[in-house]
Write a structure and sequence with these properties.
about 130 residues; mainly alpha; 4 helices
Length: about 130
């Protein structure tokens, strides 16, 4: 048995699962949007868009707070902060997918996915 073989850590699997799920959801929405009309326009979904705007402010603020707080946190708390940040990033990506599914506009999905990847890079377990 070779103990020098690289192994995937649980946190890496969590990140991979989150990213894969968000991408798969986007693919499903893309296929669905090609074959059926949107349920509502962006203008008709003003309430959903307002909720999305509030979520962006809250979740970006939460990630920023976690970023600064994690520097002072005990080593044992670090993984918890990272996973909370990952969840915030994934939430905004999935929210963008829901808006795309309902309105037919992918304008929220792309930024959500970018935010998710940026969070993954900022809270990389390899760099503490």
């Amino acid at each position: 048995m070779n103990n020098n073989s690289p192994s995937i850590k649980p946190e890496q699997l969590i990140r991979l699962a989150m990213l894969s799920g968000a991408i798969l959801f986007g693919v499903v929405v893309w296929v669905q949007r090609r074959n059926t009309p949107a349920v509502a326009t962006l203008e008709e979904s003003a309430g959903l868009i307002r909720i999305a705007q509030v979520m962006w402010v809250v979740f970006v603020g939460a990630v920023a707070g976690l970023w600064f707080k994690r520097r002072d946190a005990r080593a044992k708390a670090q993984p918890t902060y990272r996973i909370l940040a990952y969840a915030a990033g994934e939430a905004l990506a999935l929210l963008g997918g829901v808006i795309w599914l309902i309105t037919g506009s992918p304008s929220w999905y792309g930024p959500g996915m970018v935010f998710m990847v940026v969070v993954f890079m900022l809270f990389n377990p390899q760099h503490g």
